[in-house]
């Protein structure tokens, strides 16, 4: 569990710098350069993510059950997950979906993903993982509302086809996850 928590703290910590210390972040970018900052940010993120994944896998071998969701919540979680992949893609494919998500479709996707998984899973490690991501996404959205200058997310240029690509590609990814991607990635089938 310690590796999992360390990974969670490192991963969400580096992703929270813009929330808790935006001036420090900007000073680091000015001092080191944008490319060096992105490199350091990426290395720390990957380290945290690797620890998080490995620690999560280890912690799942001896689960501490906090609550047992009723079976129907698993089905509800599957429905709730439908917009997640289209929203993730819409973050990089500007169009009406991104506009409707108030310019933050990835944060909305993380909130939906985390909520769906909290409804369907009741172990301590699940609550820590999905609850932490939900809390982080809420705080980041609040922080983003207060920013005077929006940070630009790299992505495709605006196009009338972006929404169709995000929707079609997102639903295809959702189907891939249902048909075996989730099981391959996590060892658990969302279909039971």
Radius of gyration computed on alpha carbons: 18 Å
Between the first and last Cα atoms, what is the distance in angstroms?
A: 25 Å
Order of helices and strands: HHHHHHHHHH
Class computed from helices, strands and strand pairing:
mainly alpha
Model regions low in confidence, pLDDT < 50 over at least 5 residues: none
> Could you give the count of β-strands?
0
Helicity, as a percent range: over 70%
Which percent range describes the beta-strand content?
under 5%
Largest sheet: none
Question: How does the overall form come out from the CA principal axes?
Answer: globular
What does this structure look like?
The chain is an all-alpha fold and 192 residues long. It contains 10 helices and no strands. The chain has helices at 2-14, 17-20, 22-32, 34-59, 71-80, 84-90, 96-100, 105-120, 124-146, 162-186. α1 (2-14) runs antiparallel to α4 (34-59) and α6 (84-90) crosses α10 (162-186). The chain starts with a helix and ends in a 6-residue tail after the last helix.
List keywords for this structure.
192 residues; mainly alpha; 10 helices; globular
Secondary-structure blueprint:
Elements: H1 2-14, H2 17-20, H3 22-32, H4 34-59, H5 71-80, H6 84-90, H7 96-100, H8 105-120, H9 124-146, H10 162-186
Helix pairs in contact: 1-4, 1-9, 3-4, 5-8, 6-8, 6-10, 8-9
